[in-house]
Design brief:
The complex is a heterodimer.
Chain A (H helix, E strand, L loop, with lengths): L2 E3 L4 E5 L4 E3 L2 E3 L5 E8 L6 E7 L7 E2 L2 E6 L4 E6 L8 E9 L7 E3 L3 E6 L1
Parallel strand pairs in A: 2-12
Antiparallel strand pairs in A: 1-4, 3-9, 5-6, 5-10, 7-8, 8-9, 10-11, 10-12
Chain B lengths: L4 E3 L2 E4 L5 E6 L4 E9 L6 E7 L2 E5 L6 E5 L5 E5 L8 E9 L8 E2 L3 E5 L1
Parallel strand pairs in B: 2-11
Antiparallel strand pairs in B: 1-3, 3-8, 4-5, 4-9, 5-6, 7-8, 9-10, 9-11
The chains are: A mainly beta, B mainly beta.
Chain lengths: 116, 114
């Protein structure tokens, strides 16, 4: 079974600064996808970014980018120019690419605080 | 853009009662997923349906059942409710082809069992 680990329960960053959230995963599969979801106090789950395992290029979405190290099974999220609205719980998630309808397996989450 | 719709948004039940949660996926999304998130926890996968057939099954109690209907909406039926069933229940959907690996979440149904 796949596992996802987020070793930072809490992180804080100053507004306009950069912060990196860590995620590692364990799998024996070669076809998979990785995601970062954001859960603000409203508890809505919001997709931040996704990465296909077969792509070597790191995904980027505006101020959000990832550092995908496939051999190390590491998938960190970098948030640049942090804003107050970035404060949320961030979940790293894994999805098998081998079958349709496959589940997401989440890490424990990292609570990000943005200080003004 | 249209989003996943879940109803009701809040639900209060007594122990041993039953509850039905409904999920309406984004148009042209054929796969539906259900997750349970307890307080301070990450979402836990319950079950998913692809083209109205169960495609993956997680730690869903036997007291729970679910199905996907011909219009692709899904219902999660929960019987003999227990205090521990109090949680936020998410439905997510993913589209046909293209971005099919990405799951888009609804706002959730907050269930409180007293």
């Amino acid at each position: 079974a796949q596992t996802v680990t987020q070793s930072q329960p809490e992180m804080s960053v100053q507004e306009a600064e950069t912060v990196t959230l860590s995620c590692t995963y364990d799998t024996s599969e070669s076809d998979y996808y990785l995601f970062w979801y954001k859960q603000p106090p409203s508890r809505q789950m919001i997709l931040v970014i996704r990465q296909e395992a077969y792509k070597q290029q790191n995904a980027t979405e505006n101020r959000f980018s990832v550092n995908f190290q496939k051999a190390a099974k590491s998938f960190s999220l970098k948030i640049s120019d942090s804003q107050l609205g970035d404060a949320a719980m961030y979940f790293c998630a894994y999805r098998s690419g081998e079958t349709s309808g496959s589940r997401l397996t989440f890490g424990e989450g990292t609570q990000l605080t943005v200080n003004p | 853009a249209a989003g996943v719709i879940q109803s009701p948004r809040h639900l209060i039940k007594e122990k041993r009662e039953t509850a039905t949660l409904k999920c309406y996926p984004i148009p042209r999304h054929d796969t539906v997923y259900w997750y349970q998130q307890g307080p301070g926890q990450d979402p836990q996968f319950l079950i998913s349906f692809y083209e109205k057939m169960q495609s993956d099954k997680g730690s869903i109690p036997d007291r729970f059942s679910a199905q996907q209907f011909s219009d692709y909406h899904s219902e999660l039926n929960m019987s003999s409710l227990e205090l521990g069933d109090s949680a936020l229940y998410f439905c997510a959907s993913s589209p046909v082809g293209g971005d099919e690996e990405t799951q888009y979440f609804g706002p959730g149904t907050r269930l409180l069992v007293l």
